[in-house]
Amino acid sequence: MRRCLLCGQLFVAKVSFIQLFSWHKQEAKCICSNCQSKYMRIPDKHCPNCFGKLSQNKFCLDCINWQKIYGKKLLKNHSLYLYNEAFHDLMVNYKRYGDYALHKVLEELCREDLTKRQADLYVPVPTSPEHLEQRQFDTISSIYSNLVSLTCVLGKKAGLSAQGEKNRAERLRSEQSFFVKKNFTINLKKYKILLLDDIYTTGRTLYHARDALAEVFPNAKISSFTLCR
């Protein structure tokens, strides 16, 4: 029996036949099936580029607008869940109120999907220095650090307001806040980089992160992965 981190109820974690006879250590589940059912997966019919809601065109409205800036160089993103009320409440408790234990819930929600996505470098979008000092933990790295080997090559400038504090128009007007840390080198000539973040809203944050990496690593194939859209 285990106690759900979200509702506090005791539950029996289901174990598959493969997990039962696997030589690899399996992470213990931390949320019950009832709580997990509140997080809705993105439907099969979605934007093929970013997993957003399809418009009457081939892409969603966000990607159509990004095409005006980037042309064919759109950032390919993969997301798992819809940003519904349940996910909103989870992220508020995790990020605004700094409930570090909830990183285990987010880790569990994406474990199976992320481990299927192969990359040479897994790069988390960094937390701002102000929020890092306030929370005492990096919200993005904490989610993914037990799932893949992270390469924390990106830094974020201090003194800029968080995206979560802005409306849609303000997000899109946000200035570049990311940079590649000095003295970072890599021996691979061509390689895949997977950017890791929690929420894809307009894509502004991830495009800024992609642009910062592309300046230093022009031959890299860069895509992104987020928990929800």
From TrEMBL:
<dbReference type="InterPro" id="IPR051910">
    <property type="entry name" value="ComF/GntX_DNA_util-trans"/>
</dbReference>
<dbReference type="InterPro" id="IPR029057">
    <property type="entry name" value="PRTase-like"/>
</dbReference>
<dbReference type="InterPro" id="IPR000836">
    <property type="entry name" value="PRTase_dom"/>
</dbReference>
<comment type="similarity">
    <text>Belongs to the ComF/GntX family.</text>
</comment>
<protein>
    <submittedName>
        <fullName>ComF family protein</fullName>
    </submittedName>
</protein>
